[in-house]
Amino acid sequence: MRKNIAIRIRPFADPASPGTEISRRPAPDADSVQAISAIPGQALLTVAGSGMLGVPGVAARTFAAVRREDISVSLISQASSEHSICFTVPAEHADRARTRLRETFQQEIARQEIDGVDVITGAATLVVVGMGIAKTPGVAARVFAALSEADVNIIAIAQGSSELNLSLVVDGRDVTNALRAVHSAFQLSKIGGGRVRSAGPTDVVLLGYGRIGRALALLIARQNAGRLRVVGVIDRSGFVFEPEGLAPRRLAAVGAAKARGKSIAQVAGGRAGGATDAVAFMAHHALGDPILVDVTADDTTGTLMAALAAGMHVVLANKRPLTGRRREYDALAGAAAAHGRRLLHEATVGAGLPIIDTVHKLVESGDHVLRIEGCPSGTLGYLFSELSRGRHFSEALRGAVANGYAEPDPRVDLSGLDVARKALILGRLLGFAGELSDVAVESLVPSGAARLPLAEFLERLEEYDAAWTRRAEAARQTGVLRYRTIVTKRSIRVGIVTAAGSSPMASLAGTDNQFIFTTRRYREHPLVITGPGAGPAVTAGGILNDVLRIAGG
Amino acid sequence: MRKNIAIRIRPFADPASPGTEISRRPAPDADSVQAISAIPGQALLTVAGSGMLGVPGVAARTFAAVRREDISVSLISQASSEHSICFTVPAEHADRARTRLRETFQQEIARQEIDGVDVITGAATLVVVGMGIAKTPGVAARVFAALSEADVNIIAIAQGSSELNLSLVVDGRDVTNALRAVHSAFQLSKIGGGRVRSAGPTDVVLLGYGRIGRALALLIARQNAGRLRVVGVIDRSGFVFEPEGLAPRRLAAVGAAKARGKSIAQVAGGRAGGATDAVAFMAHHALGDPILVDVTADDTTGTLMAALAAGMHVVLANKRPLTGRRREYDALAGAAAAHGRRLLHEATVGAGLPIIDTVHKLVESGDHVLRIEGCPSGTLGYLFSELSRGRHFSEALRGAVANGYAEPDPRVDLSGLDVARKALILGRLLGFAGELSDVAVESLVPSGAARLPLAEFLERLEEYDAAWTRRAEAARQTGVLRYRTIVTKRSIRVGIVTAAGSSPMASLAGTDNQFIFTTRRYREHPLVITGPGAGPAVTAGGILNDVLRIAGG
Fold first, then answer.
1. Which residues in chain B have Cβ-Cβ distances shorter than 8 Å to A143?
2. pLDDT range class, residue B542, cuts 50, 70, 90
């Protein structure tokens, strides 16, 4: 008799064996929607007339007439104005029902008490099934909001008081859209889906759990419990996941294990697996507007694409995915836009300093950023400060390694690649169309030193002292040496300059970073931001600002 | 027979003569809600049973039975599962209807095909009336969302296909809440209210239309048409207002008139009136999440309070309302919180520089701001730069006036009051509990010069040169003179210091401002922001960032 349309939701399917439908949920939540289905091939009949109020028993006579034709009526709706009553019947019986009703109300129609009997064919009834729909404010609101956003026009509505379902008559052509919209609003394809989620915490998944990731987890637990919660942590070996939030104690235990050199797959509750699979697994659960935070230094583009496609926002401290091929960069930005997700990355440049945000705010308020000059390397900043204080290159560089400012192999810093990546990120914000290979980089690795074993390189550092001392002394005539990038829409250069005493760069000290924005409005006098641009605490702070921006709005 | 509850909305009342109800709107919008009313004293009867599907003509027999008792049925709802049918009757007839229905279905009840007849008393029917409710996706969604937010539980729903109304059965105790919620969601008390507003532009009202206000209006017209629109402009004389947005040409014409010295009350379409009355008048119209932007330098607290109470957000470039009595400051912040409105004021300190935002971001991400040092006066910055270059005080000050850096009476700048206000705004963000009078200010107005007529003061400037030259020369031994504020939670000081060469302040040039944030994370090396801190373009940019923050989220 009644035929359900092909699209049917399996809300409680076991992800381990797709296709298995678990018939009943153990303890359904009071505010859950369990399924939505559609009954196509319906016709909506309406008996209407401004004189109906005075006609006794219209409802009774209507249904008696339909009954005599042995036609089954499903949805019935009469709003309290009593100017009309409408109901659905299978489309093939619509004509017969109309004919019989016209006969029944012949006299009232003649007296214009009843206008007639209207038929809308090609209709479908959507049935939203769930426990306590009638008792839970918010379920109906979510359903209607989802349909409204999908631009689905609702022709009639009925929800009985003891009912577990809400029925809506829509145009048959809107059925697929309508199912998809409700399905998505209640995350019916996900484990734990179906509940109304609105004021709950935003879920955070950490990709990478080194010093920055652990600092961030701690910050979230201390400062933002209730608003944010960490539900998953992924490293190269595997992941831990708890859809109701990983307890701070558990996060600390995982962190301690990581600090001892263990991998996440080895900790209690840890599962082995690749990052992209981990994201797919987590995305299968009903999470609260989840955010994937990438604090690795790996090429994670594939994982990020999967996360965006699964409906996660992405926050990056990792520069790699933003400094790969232009095509990949565009694909990432495009995926975020296509899925309506945010892709934020304040911490990729200057750590917690408001650099990316300042570019966005200037552009958003109608300014044009003409040029960004920057000294975004704390390591090289330290090196050049020391050189200008008269220290030898070898001493200064060994000091940088000893203080943890430089990588164990300081040639990584000296190569300028890290500065080039930051510069490319800024450049792409300004519209720079090129690749990392188009950034002109002056490497500070002495020629011939690139291929030396590390120990030998460090041993022979004194060989370079004389040349560096000469260079620093020559610069002292007119200013101070700085390792600087200059970024415009058209070109990006990275290398050594002599900053004049009047330049903001001359006042830069120690490991501080500096960014100088020259814009149409800040043209004669630029906007300058200076301060520490590395370290777990400030980096985690910058990431948290991005996360809260998403969670807040 | 049917009695409507006392609360009734008059959506199209003429504001000029309150109480007059205009019976019919000339051309109602397709997506409008025109009124909501409630029918109290209803009972909801439900005939239900899992065997009902097999019982022929339950609907017909139900209504025939009720009809025989001569009881009028208003809302009817049967969801398509056909397990139940429900309808409302006046509460006083509920028992009679139930008895008759039990008799009617006696056999089915005995066979357990029908469970019985339930009655919910104390119910009420809400009737939402409007054109095209059934045809407009979004109207039902808004109604349900409003009721959900108000925590109103919907017992039954009916909306007929040809109907102009949507009927909802709710608990009678929820009626007042429900009416208020829908009323407010559709702004039914406002002129032009009733429409579904979601993706429309955000409306901006400018309080003050000097150089900054005009720069902002231009920016909005050029950069953000569609997202923002200026609907009203207010000055001390009166206002212009156009709820559909003032055309850029009109804004330019008003601006040109203002620049010629005319007041807004005198321009075409201008109305005379005080600012608070102007806000009240505008707030009576249905505006899109309106924002009042205060670019005056007046004490506008009363007007801002009225705007917040009327549901407007407030963005300030005006320092006065934030630097009055602590009690007023708290009242303003409290009113914003109570009405769920934003109160933003980035442009009050450092114009377009991200100063207030940086404080917020640091605090939000769990940092603690220990101290803010700043040189927030372009005028005094210029004066001290010139002094340190060896110019005479008299020359330098006259230069500042001639360049428009200083007020026509430069004693306003020399007094330090403007710096003290900025410092108090920063201090209050950090928790400073005191008043403007608690800020320790070193005035640069020479003793005895405060009461001189302006002309005489300017004529006698050379008298002060020798003392200033001595002071600048003495400073040169250890650094440079700066007019600085130092702000903590406990104290605020404003006055002259000698900045050592190693301080970021030493590198400050010309009219630039500078802000140095020392925080728990940025402790050894502070976060420093430097750049122009005044001027219409950068100030308008800073205001626009605040406005877009509200419009965007």
1. 144
2. very high
Per the CB < 8 A criterion, the answer to whether B338 and B346 are in contact is no
The shares of helix, strand and coil residues in chain B, as percent rounded to the nearest 5, are 40, 25, 40
- Collapse the DSSP code of A29 into the 3-class scheme (helix H, G, I; strand E, B; otherwise coil) and give the result: coil
Strands B369-375 and B479-487 turn out to be antiparallel
Relative to beta strand A238-241, strand A228-234 is: antiparallel
Task: Please give the residue of chain B at the shortest CA–CA distance from A146.
Answer: B141
Token pair 């390189």: residue? A457
**Which residues, at least 6 apart from B539, have a Cβ–Cβ distance to it below 8 Å?**
B212, B215, B317, B347, B351, B352
* Residues 6+ positions from B286 with CB-CB distance below 8 Å: B187, B190, B191, B192, B193, B194, B195, B197, B243
Q: Which of B63, B165, B509 sits opposite A63 (nearest CB)?
A: B63
A351: Cβ–Cβ under 8 A, 6 or more apart, which residues? A513, A532, A533, A534, A535, A538, A539, A541, A542
Q: Which B positions 94-153 lie with beta carbon below 8 A of chain A?
A: 118, 120, 125, 127, 134-138, 140-145, 147-148, 150-153
pLDDT along chain A (553 residues), means of 10: 32 30 32 74 86 70 84 77 77 93 92 88 84 62 79 78 69 86 77 60 95 95 84 97 93 94 94 96 88 97 96 96 96 92 96 97 96 96 91 94 88 95 98 97 93 94 94 90 96 96 88 97 96 94 96 71
Chain B nearest-CA residue for A530: B528
| Angle, vertex CA A325, rays to CA A323 and CA A326, nearest 5 | 90
Local structure of B124: helix, strand or coil: strand
What is the rounded distance in angstroms from the CA atom of residue A419 to the CA atom of residue B235? 50
Residue A467 CB neighbour total at 10 angstroms: 11
Q: In one letter, which amino acid is A466?
A: A
Token duo for residue B537: 């373009």
Q: Tell how strand B202-207 and strand B228-234 pair up.
A: parallel
Count of C-beta atoms within a 10 Å radius of residue B433: 11
Is-contact B375 A549, C-beta < 8 A?
no
How many secondary structure helices (H) and strands (E) does chain A include? 18, 19
What residues of A are in contact with residue B354 (Cβ under 8 Å)? Answer: 354, 357-358, 361
- Residue with token string 């003392």: B467
Chain B CB within 8 Å of residue A385 CB: no
A88 contact residues in B (CB cutoff 8 A): 80
CB contact (8 A) between residue B63 and residue A67: no
CB A203 within 8 A of CB A290: yes
**A155, A365, A368, A519, best to mutate vs chain B, most B CBs in 10 Å:** A365
In chain B, which among 326-365 make CB contacts under 8 A with chain A?
352-354, 357-358, 361-362, 364-365
- Let me know if B497 is exposed, middle or buried by CB neighbors in 10 A (0-12, 13-18, 19+): buried
Distance CA A453, CA A132 (A): 70
ipTM higher than threshold 0.95: no
pTM of the model: 0.81
**Annotated catalytic sites of B, by residue?**
422
| Mean pLDDT of chain B, nearest integer | 86
Please write the tens of the pLDDT for every residue from A488-543.
999 999 999 999 988 899 889 889 999 999 999 999 999 999 999 999 999 999 99
Nearest CB to A140 within list B86, B154, B223: B154
Q: For chain A, say whether B177 makes contact (Cβ under 8 Å).
A: no
Rounded Cα distance, B171 and B178, in Å:
10
DSSP state string for B109-120: HHTTSS-EEEEE
The CA distance from B307 to B295, in Å, is 15
Token pair recorded at residue B82: 């056909």
Residue pLDDT, tens place only, B152-174:
887 888 876 544 567 888 898 98
Q: How far apart are the first and last CA of chain A?
A: 47
